[in-house]
């Protein structure tokens, strides 16, 4: 059986160039999705899966991330004096979520390099990695399921999503073998963003991983791959091929709701989808969208 997992690593050092000029002075992770920054959804997901220790891998100009998860004494005092307990509760929610830690990535050498920066904090125990561009709906608990499978297999677990063939070149794609569990597959191969028409399957890696600590040993020796970066996908491929040492790599096929905040159109769709499901916003928004579409 595996270890009790308590640590989450969230890489957040990217420049967010696809959202310029909005991200010129503000981290892309702080862009609001309805009324919370995208990064808060990710931290809440980790906490919801039972992870209490969160390490964020940051870079220059990312101070807003640390500030968001810290106390703001003046704001809290002002809300207390006003008796605005509802807003105060919302402010304190992000402060009290988890035990937050931060380390800078330094050189922007890719996702594998960002994960390697977590080595000293994580130690020799399995840990979760959550990427900020993917928001997983709280009603579809993916990470909790991945941690459960990790405990059963004592292996590294990645999240997989079935995507249309026309989109396979945008993701890392897995070659898999079925297991006796419907939503679990064994991974025998991984390829990062294969050319159009050359993908080995339609199962794409999305931004959730539960990884054994042997990944650090692999990443320390990892040569730069695609784009001159140290690719996490390459390290996972090596781990899949060294099962006797690493326990192998398995995938959990996710069939729930996922919102992509990685590009502008998908970001807007995510806001509309999440707002539509809320009791306070949904009815009026849906009515407005109906009228808006009718007016085209």
UniProtKB/TrEMBL annotation:
Residues 7-275 form the Nucleotidyl transferase domain. Transmembrane segments: none annotated. Its EC number is 2.7.7.9. It comes from the Bacteria. It catalyses: alpha-D-glucose 1-phosphate + UTP + H(+) = UDP-alpha-D-glucose + diphosphate. Belongs to the UDPGP type 2 family. Keywords: Nucleotidyltransferase, Transferase. Gene3D superfamilies: Spore Coat Polysaccharide Biosynthesis Protein SpsA, Chain A. One of its GO terms (molecular function) is UTP:glucose-1-phosphate uridylyltransferase activity. This is UTP--glucose-1-phosphate uridylyltransferase. The lineage of its organism: Bacteria, Bacillati, Actinomycetota, Actinomycetes, Micrococcales.
């Amino acid at each position: 059986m595996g270890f009790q997992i308590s640590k989450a690593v969230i890489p957040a050092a990217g420049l967010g160039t696809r959202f310029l000029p909005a991200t010129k002075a503000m981290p892309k992770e702080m862009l609001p999705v309805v009324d919370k920054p995208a990064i808060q959804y990710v931290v809440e997901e980790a906490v919801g899966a039972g992870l209490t220790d969160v390490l964020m891998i940051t870079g220059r100009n990312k101070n807003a991330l640390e500030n968001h998860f810290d106390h703001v004494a003046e704001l809290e005092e002002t809300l207390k004096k006003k008796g605005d307990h509802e807003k105060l509760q919302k402010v304190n929610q992000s402060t009290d979520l988890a035990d937050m830690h931060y380390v800078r990535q330094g050189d922007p050498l890719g996702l594998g390099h960002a994960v390697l920066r977590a080595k000293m904090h994580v130690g020799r125990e399995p840990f979760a990695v959550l990427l900020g561009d993917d928001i997983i709906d709280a009603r579809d608990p993916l990470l909790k399921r991945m941690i459960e499978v990790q405990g059963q297999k004592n292996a590294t677990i990645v999240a997989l999503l079935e995507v249309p063939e026309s989109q396979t070149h945008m993701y890392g794609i897995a070659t898999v073998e079925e297991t006796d569990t419907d939503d679990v597959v064994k991974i025998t191969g991984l390829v990062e963003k294969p050319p159009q028409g050359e993908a080995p399957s339609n199962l794409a890696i999305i931004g959730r991983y539960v990884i054994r600590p042997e990944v650090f040993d692999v990443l320390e020796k990892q040569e730069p791959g695609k784009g001159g970066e140290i690719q996490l996908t390459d390290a996972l491929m090596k781990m899949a091929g060294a099962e006797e040492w690493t326990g192998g790599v398995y995938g959990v096929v996710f069939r729930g709701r996922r919102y992509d905040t990685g590009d502008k159109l998908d970001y807007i769709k995510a806001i509309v989808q999440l707002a539509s499901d809320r009791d306070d916003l949904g009815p009026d928004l849906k009515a407005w969208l109906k009228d808006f579409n009718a007016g085209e």
